[in-house]
Design goal:
Blueprint lengths: L2 E6 L4 E7 L24 E3 L4 E5 L4 E6 L5 E6 L9 E5 L2 E8 L21 E6 L5
Antiparallel strand pairs: 1-2, 3-4, 4-5, 5-6, 7-8, 8-9
């Protein structure tokens, strides 16, 4: 199972953990709507503005607050991602690029247990809101 961890590096303690995934075979996580992803093939990216981005092979992008691990948003991707999101900055604004070309076999699973059809393969790019 993939976890994004808020680790206090100077103390070596875990501040928070958040399991990722929506695969029914993994079962529910104590009182949350998220379930574990049995086939983690990607990683997380942290933005300078304090967001954690996780694009999963199940075709979801999750956005968390780096300070407390709370999920701020979740978006559907056209296909699964097996890469770490790229975060870059131009003229003080942050941008994100996600590889949504899917794994070699589609591992996305709907809540009813049926695998949805593969979506288009490609890249998703977007700008984060301007810093205040």
């Amino acid at each position: 199972m993939v976890h994004a961890d808020g680790v206090r590096l100077n103390k070596g303690t875990i501040k928070w953990q958040a399991p990722f995934g929506d695969n029914p075979a993994a079962g529910p996580n104590q009182g949350t709507e998220m379930r574990g992803n049995l086939w983690p093939k990607s990683g997380i990216a942290v933005t300078g503005s304090g967001l954690i981005l996780f694009a999963s092979n199940e075709g979801k992008l999750r956005v968390l607050n780096a300070a407390d691990g709370k999920q701020l948003a979740m978006y559907d991707l056209p296909n699964g991602s097996t890469c770490v999101p790229a975060v870059y900055q131009v003229d003080g604004r942050e941008y994100v690029l996600i590889n949504a070309t899917g794994p070699s076999s589609d591992l996305r699973v709907a809540k009813d247990g049926e695998a949805p059809p593969n979506g288009p393969k490609g890249y998703v790019a977007f700008a984060l809101p301007k810093a205040q």
